[in-house]
């Protein structure tokens, strides 16, 4: 059974700081891993999708890495801004069992101005 | 990326009534759709997986007679919450993916259900 864990559960940083969000998963047989952003009361915004054959993806100030063998992914946010405040969700799409996507509990990020 | 819409975006209903939520893929054929539920300050929990033209597969603990899912076409899936009760109040999100299992899932904006 695939389990996805995100650490830390919550994070508060001053504006401008670089930060790393962590995601770990128990079953390395995955199709892809995706990072999402969710603002309070809103839906999901896809940030980065990493296929199982890839090791990282970059978009602007965001960089996500994937290490399947160790079951880990990190989301790196450079030069954080107050607008980055949100909950960040890591989601793993399984290779078996209907290709379901399993979500982590999320990291609530607050960037102080 | 592909677009998935949900309707309504929010709904308030009385206890005991049924509510239908629609999920549409606007610019691609969605052979598989997923329904998730999210309680406040919690993550998304998969409720069921539906493939076009066949019965939905429900996750353990999800009542199939209470949460009716229909995936009648390649662009539309519906979730009906029957005899809704206050504990069914939640944020419901659907996602859709195309014919290949490698295809990315695209998520709808969600539907906020409040049962009084």
What's the SSE blueprint?
The complex is a heterodimer of chains A (about 110) and B (about 120).
Chain A: E1 4-7, E2 10-14, E3 19-25, E4 30-38, E5 44-51, E6 56-59, E7 62-67, E8 72-77, E9 86-94, E10 101-103, E11 107-112
Parallel strand pairs in A: 2-11
Antiparallel strand pairs in A: 1-3, 3-8, 4-5, 4-9, 6-7, 7-8, 9-10, 9-11
Chain B: E1 4-7, E2 10-13, E3 19-25, E4 32-38, E5 44-51, E6 57-58, E7 67-73, E8 76-81, E9 90-97, E10 106-107, E11 111-115
Parallel strand pairs in B: 2-11
Antiparallel strand pairs in B: 1-3, 3-8, 4-5, 4-9, 5-6, 7-8, 9-10, 9-11
Short account of what is shown:
By secondary structure, chain A is mainly beta. Chain A has strands at residues 4-7, 10-14, 19-25, 30-38, 44-51, 56-59, 62-67, 72-77, 86-94, 101-103, 107-112.
Structure description:
The complex is a heterodimer of chains A (113) and B (116). Chain A is mostly beta strands. In chain A, strands 2, 4, 5, 9, 10 and 11 form a 6-stranded mixed beta sheet that branches. In chain A, a hairpin with a 2-residue loop joins strand 6 and strand 7. The radius of gyration of chain A is 14 Å and the shape is globular. Chain A starts with a strand and ends with a strand. The model of chain A has no long low-confidence stretch (mean pLDDT 93). Chain B is mainly β and 116 residues long. Helices cover 0% and strands 52% of the residues of chain B. Chain B has no helices and 11 strands. In chain B, the strands form 2 sheets. In chain B, strands 2, 4, 5, 6, 9, 10 and 11 form a 7-stranded mixed beta sheet that branches. The model of chain B has no long low-confidence stretch (mean pLDDT 91). Chains A and B meet through strand 4, strand 5, strand 9 and strand 10 of A and strand 4, strand 5, strand 9 and strand 10 of B.
């Amino acid at each position: 059974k695939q389990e996805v864990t995100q650490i830390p559960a919550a994070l508060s940083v001053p504006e401008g700081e670089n930060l790393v969000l962590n995601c770990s998963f128990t079953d390395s047989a995955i199709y892809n891993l995706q990072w999402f952003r969710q603002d309070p009361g809103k839906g999901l915004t896809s940030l980065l999708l990493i296929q199982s054959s890839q090791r990282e993806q970059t978009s602007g100030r965001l960089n996500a890495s994937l290490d399947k063998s160790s079951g880990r992914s990190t989301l790196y946010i450079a030069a954080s801004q107050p607008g980055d405040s949100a909950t960040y969700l890591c989601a793993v799409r399984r290779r078996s069992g209907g290709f379901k996507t399993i979500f982590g509990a999320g990291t609530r990020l607050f960037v102080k101005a | 990326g592909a677009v998935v819409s949900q309707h309504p975006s929010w709904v308030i209903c009385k206890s005991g009534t049924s509510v239908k939520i629609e999920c549409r893929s606007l610019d691609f054929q969605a052979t598989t759709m997923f329904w998730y539920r999210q309680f406040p300050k919690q993550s998304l929990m998969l409720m069921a997986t539906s493939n076009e033209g066949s019965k939905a597969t429900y996750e353990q603990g999800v009542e199939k007679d209470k949460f009716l899912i229909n995936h009648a076409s390649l662009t539309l899936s519906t979730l009906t919450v029957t005899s809704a009760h206050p504990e069914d109040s939640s944020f419901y999100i659907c996602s859709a993916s195309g014919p290949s299992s490698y295809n990315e899932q695209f998520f709808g904006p969600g539907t906020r259900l409040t049962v009084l």
